[in-house]
Amino acid sequence: MGKSGNFDAAFSHLNEMCDRKVDPDFSTYSSILDGACKLGNVEVVERVTSVMVEKKLLPNCPLSEYDSIVEKLCDLGKTHAAEMFFKKACDEKIGLQDGTYGLMLKALTNEARTKEAISVYRLISERGIVVDGSSYHAFADVLCKEERSEEGFELLMDVISRGCSPSASELSCFISFLCRRGRWREAEYLLNVVLDKGLLPDLISCSPLVGRYCSGRQIDSAIALHNKMEKLNGSLDVTTYNVLLSGLFAARRIEEAMRVFDYMRRHNLMSSASFTIMIRGLCGVKELRKAMKIHDEMLKMRLKPDAATYKRLISGFQITLSNLETRNEGDEAK
Fold first, then answer.
1. CA–CA distance from 197 to each of 165, 245, 272 (Å)?
2. Which of 96, 124, 166, 171 could join 129 via S-S bond, C-beta 3.0 to 4.6 A?
3. What is the distance between the terminal CA atoms of the chain, rounded to a whole angstrom?
4. Which family does it belong to (predicted)?
5. Looking at the domain assignment, is residue 289 inside a domain?
6. DSSP annotation of 94
């Protein structure tokens, strides 16, 4: 009733409880207080607080007990009431325990009150307060879900710098969001921070960056990203690997293409298109033996492409072989 703003009904219910000789407890009064704080009803806040003091549910002079009051209210999920006492303590320059800041941050985060949680986090940062890891983790998770602005990104980086990170799945969603919005620098930076910390994001969040690197001829960046993922035994999806293979052959990075293909093989991430790219690429640099070996592997794995593609593939073999024979004959004539 307090949450809905029907305070007359709430007080009527309290009176009925008292008439039945049932004393409402701290939780009951705090529910009404929380609703009043949420709606900014000062009159009800003062009335409930007064009754709670009268019934010794709150201290008459809470200077030394703000920590325990905030803790109780946070544990009950009464974040609006907890925030009221928290702000009073801050305004009155009463030194709260570091743990109280953590409780307030976590409680606001759990209620998805992101704006208020950010304000508390800024206080924590400004005052050099250290809170427990679970509070940081919860805050980082909500930043990934709810606050994806530039400010949210900066705050997330700050949380990560403290040694705490959101879950890999939440980070992956955030990175994917940044890619969709074309915020490539932020996506790249966040992904590298995540990988450097030994966390492995979902492959779907890495694929857009690899594709962008390859289309922009930033092969070094694409390979560097793959190498970091390889160290964590992570992988990309087959389609993205095919884009990477094509980019490596276009840049004449044959050895790296072979190494990436071998990694794909070990993780069973090859498709008919993967073999086609490898065979064409190797034929293009006159590596016919390697191309033929991969061709045979393709047939053994029953990944032969459609008839038209396969015909072009064999034609490429024949043309490359014919060119090599012609060149060899020319060399012999000399």
1. 9, 27, 35
2. 124
3. 101
4. Belongs to the PPR family. P subfamily.
5. yes
6. -
Contact partners, residue 225, CB within 8 Å, separation at least 6: 191, 195, 206, 209, 210, 213
Token representation of residue 313 = 């593939």
Position 37: which residue type? C
Instruction: List pLDDT tens digits, range 5-46.
Output: 567 676 666 766 766 766 788 998 898 899 999 988 999 899
Number of residues assigned to the chain: 334
Q: Taking the mean position of all CA atoms in its chain, how far away is CA 171?
A: 1
φ, ψ of residue 301 to 5 degrees: the values are -85, 0
Which residue shows structure tokens 């206080």?
123
Instruction: Flag whether 309 is in a domain.
Output: yes
CB hemisphere CA count around 189 (13 angstroms): 12
- DSSP state letter for 218: -
Q: Does this model's pTM top 0.70? A: yes
Please state the domain count of the chain. 1
Q: How far is CA 130 from the centre of its chain?
A: 23
Any domain includes 324 = yes
In a domain, 170, yes or no: no
Give the helix, strand, coil percentages of the chain, each rounded to 5: 75, 0, 25
Q: What is the domain extent for residue 289?
A: 270-334
Residue pair 131/99 in contact by the 8 Å Cβ criterion: yes
pLDDT digits (tens, 9 = 90+) for 128-146: 998 988 899 889 888 888 7
Q: Which 3 state secondary structure label does DSSP give 149?
A: coil
Structure-token pair, residue 130: 């250290």
Whether the Cβ atoms of residue 11 and residue 39 lie closer than 8 Å to each other: no
